[in-house]
Structure formats: structure tokens, C-alpha cells
Design a protein that fits this description.
238 residues; alpha+beta; 5-stranded antiparallel β-sheet; 4-stranded antiparallel β-sheet; 5 helices
């Protein structure tokens, strides 16, 4: 299930760490839907979040730690391969239509419309993709308890991506589906993203994925990489 949430913003200036606004909006929507009974299914500390999303900015200009959205409009592409999760979130979002969601600095955003988007069928073992939200690959060092993020320009990018995808599909697809999986940059670039007041290295642009069609379809629906439910790893098939 793939949907587009269309928001208006009261004031054009946002913090560069704007992805957290939408995570907060999702949580509020679940809290106010069915008396909040579904919240822990998706946002308990150990809960797996079966979705990805990508904010689409219109007329945006970055200036250090601020973002100016001149058209005062942001769309969010939200995607999942879990039909139950899709229905839950769609209904929760629907209850938020035309309600102001307060943001810092006396700003607010308001969900105006929800549009269900056409999902492409994946029946090939090769697809070209364009990332709507940056590809984030997180390597966590248990000894130092520190995170390192790799873009497509860094050594170890491909291997780390395979490891993360392997963890993603565990319990859903077999290890055999990963045997021929590759990810190749086509027109890609490193980007540095503000995330929870820190800076992380990620990748944007165009890539080519090869592998089992079931795996590629899974990644299309759920996103690829780390921090998917925080607004990373969502892509369109070209």
C-alpha cells in the first residue's frame, strides 16, 4: 500500500531536522485512533515498524540549520507491504484531516488530502530506482556503542547494504533470495542529513538493484536500509 499525504504549512521556515515532525504526526495519529490501542503495536520500544516514508518538499531552500519551503506545502509518500498496517495508518491519518498539528516556533502543518498511489509490480530481477528519501546505512559498533554511516562513496557500502537487507527480510524471505542481490550507484551522490540534532552521511540519486523479484518488491514496499520509519530509504521504480 502506497499513499501520498498532502500537507499545508502555516509558515515557510522549518528546522532542517524536519523528518521528526512527521514521526510525531504519525504517533499522534495512532494515539487518537481507536483510543490509542494500536500505538504499542507500531511504537513500543522493541516494535518493528513495517513502513517507510519520504517527505517531498516544494520550492525548498536549505540554509544551515533551517529550511525555507516557499510554497508552504509538503507531500509525504508513505509505503508498506503490510496491508493491515496500511489500513491502520490510513484510518488514523484520515481522522487527522484538516486538523492543525502544532510545530515549534509557532508554526503548524495541516493534512489536507490523502491519495492512494499506484504500486508498480516487480517481475524483473533488475530495476532502476530513484530515492525519494536518502538511503541511510548505519553500522553500529557494539564495543564503542557508536554509529557510523556510509554513503555510496565509501568502502564497504555494498557489503553493509547486503547485511542490512539480510536483517530486514529475516523471517519474511529466505536467505536464498539474497544470493544475487546487488546495489549499484548510477547517478548517486553523498548527502549529509541533520537527524536528531546530529549529522549523518547518506546517499541520494539513482541506483540499480538486481536480485530475486520477490526481494526487490519487498524493498520497494518497505524501503531499504536503516532508519526507514524515520524517513529514509523510500524509492520509486523508474
Amino acid at each position: 500500500m502506497r499513499m501520498r499525504l498532502k500537507f499545508n504549512i502555516a509558515e515557510p521556515e522549518l528546522d532542517a531536522d524536519f523528518r521528526v515532525y512527521f514521526v510525531s504526526f504519525f504517533k499522534k495519529a495512532l494515539t487518537e485512533y481507536r483510543d490509542g490501542r494500536l500505538y504499542d503495536i507500531y511504537y513500543a520500544p522493541a516494535a518493528q515498524k513495517p513502513f517507510t516514508f519520504a517527505p517531498i518538499l516544494f520550492g525548498a531552500q536549505f540554509d544551515k540549520d533551517k529550511l525555507d519551503v516557499s510554497k508552504q506545502r509538503i507531500d509525504v509518500v508513505w509505503s508498506t507491504g503490510d496491508s493491515a498496517a496500511g489500513i491502520d495508518f490510513y484510518n488514523a491519518f484520515h481522522k487527522q484531516l484538516r486538523k492543525d498539528f502544532l510545530l515549534p516556533d509557532s508554526n503548524a502543518m495541516c493534512l489536507q488530502k490523502i491519495v492512494l498511489e499506484h504500486e508498480q509490480n516487480v517481475d524483473s530481477d533488475k530495476i532502476s530506482i530513484h530515492f525519494l528519501s536518502p538511503l541511510c546505512l548505519r553500522n553500529h559498533d557494539k564495543n564503542s556503542n557508536k554509529d557510523m554511516y556510509l554513503s555510496s562513496e565509501r568502502a564497504g557500502f555494498h557489503q553493509l547494504c547486503r547485511e542490512i537487507v539480510s536483517n530486514q527480510v529475516k523471517g519474511t524471505l529466505t536467505e536464498r533470495s539474497l544470493e544475487n542481490f546487488t546495489i549499484q550507484p548510477v547517478q548517486a551522490r553523498k548527502t549529509v542529513i541533520r537527524y536528531h540534532k546530529g549529522m549523518i552521511e547518506a546517499s541520494s540519486g539513482y541506483f540499480r538493484l538486481e536480485g530475486d523479484p520477490a526481494l526487490l518488491s519487498f524493498l520497494y514496499q518497505y524501503g531499504i536500509g536503516s532508519r526507514r520509519s524515520a524517513g529514509f530509504g523510500c524509492f520509486n521504480i523508474i
